[in-house]
Amino acid sequence: MLRRRRRRRRKIRRKRRKKKEKKKKQRKKKKKKKKKKKKKKKKKKKKKKKKKKKKNRGGGGCGDEVQAEGNKCLRSYQ
């Protein structure tokens, strides 16, 4: 009786182990899903602001040759 029971237990254990191995193999067969690579966002380059050239507006102060008659400069060098 005892021997038979032991044998039966061994049989059951063996079956269980085989089942586990089979499941393990099946699990290995499963293909892993490929992870999608995240695209790196390109950093936008900041545009440099162009400095506006100051237009020569004729000055109109002392040292300007073309001056109105009444607008004479009172500096000593002129």
Task: Describe the protein.
This protein is mostly helical and 78 residues long. The chain has a domain at 1-29. The protein has 1 helix and no strands. It has one helix spanning 2-29. It is rod-shaped.
Order of H and E elements: H
How much beta, percentage-wise?
A: under 5%
Alpha-carbon distance between the two ends: 137 Å
Rg calc? 48 Å
Query: DSSP helix count?
Result: 1
The percent range for helix content is: 25-40%
Low-confidence stretches: none
What's the mean pLDDT score?
76
Structural class: mainly alpha
The main pleated sheet reads as: none
Total beta strand runs? 0
- Quick one: overall form? rod-shaped
Question: Summed up, what is this model?
Answer:
The chain is an all-alpha fold and 78 residues long. The protein has one helix at residues 2-29.
Any descriptors?
78 residues, mainly alpha, single chain
What is the fold's blueprint, element by element?
Layout: H1 2-29
